[in-house]
Amino acid sequence: MSGSLILRVRAALSAIKDPSSGRNIIAAGAVGGLSADEDGKVRFTLEVPDGDRRAAEALLKAAESAAAAVPGVTGVSAVATAHSAAQQHQPAKGGHDNPFGLKQKPRIETAGEQLAGVKSMIAIASGKGGVGKSTVAANLAVSLAARGLKTGLLDADIYGPSLPTLFGIKGKPQMRDNKIVPFEAFNVKLMSIGFLIDPDEAVAWRGPMVMGALRQLMSDVDWGDLDILLVDTPPGTGDAHISLIQSKKLSGAVIVSTPQEMALADVRRGVQLFRQTDTPVIGVIENMAWLETPDGSKQFLFGEGGAERAAKELGAPFLGTVPLYPDLRQASDDGLPPAATDHAAATTFNQLADQIVKFTERR
Ligand SMILES: Nc1ncnc2c1ncn2[C@@H]1O[C@H](COP(=O)(O)OP(=O)(O)O)[C@@H](O)[C@H]1O
Ligand SMILES: [Mg+2]
Question: Closest Cα partner for 55 from 85, 34, 82?
Answer without folding.
Answer: 82
